[in-house]
Design a protein that fits this description.
This protein is of the alpha+beta class. It has one domain. The protein contains two helices and nine strands. A hairpin with a 5-residue loop joins β2 and β3. The radius of gyration is 19 Å and the shape is globular.
């Protein structure tokens, strides 16, 4: 009888750990600007209470096809506190075999994301997002 109770306690503890350690995944909404693009944002809080943020996108159009005057895609985060933070530039590549264009960004933030969006910009170091929002998640 004690073995069954002990096993139940261990099971509940493991289940709690799994649930709290899981990452939250939020897809990007469909976009008329880049209709073929599909992607997601994965957010997980680490042991230091920071947020690991991983953005991955497939079939994102080359920035010059979107707007010849722009040169980079910048990922932004709206925080739960109401601030907008520049998370960085998307790194893009093409698959060797498939030729599929992929883009990604991995970063860490002390702020909890409320929404993530991507804009087309003239440079990485911009302080304020431009009006041309390419992709966006709903709120987390």
């Amino acid at each position: 009888m004690k073995t069954i109770k002990f096993s139940g306690v261990i099971f509940i503890a493991m289940l709690s750990f799994i649930i709290t350690s899981c990452a939250q995944i939020e897809p990007f909404q469909s976009s008329s600007m880049v209709p073929g693009a599909q992607g997601k944002v994965k957010v997980k809080q680490d042991s230091n209470k920071n947020f690991d943020i991983n953005v991955s996108i497939n079939d994102l159009a080359d920035i010059k096809q979107l707007d010849e005057t722009k040169d980079t895609y910048v990922v932004w985060m709206e925080t739960k506190q109401g601030n907008t933070v520049n998370l960085g530039q998307l790194k893009s590549s093409r698959g060797i075999i498939s030729g599929q264009r992929k883009a990604s960004l991995e970063t860490v933030s002390p702020y909890e994301p409320f929404r993530v969006f991507i804009t087309a910009e003239h440079g990485l170091n911009t302080k304020v997002p431009g009006r041309q929002v390419v992709l966006s998640t709903e709120t987390f």
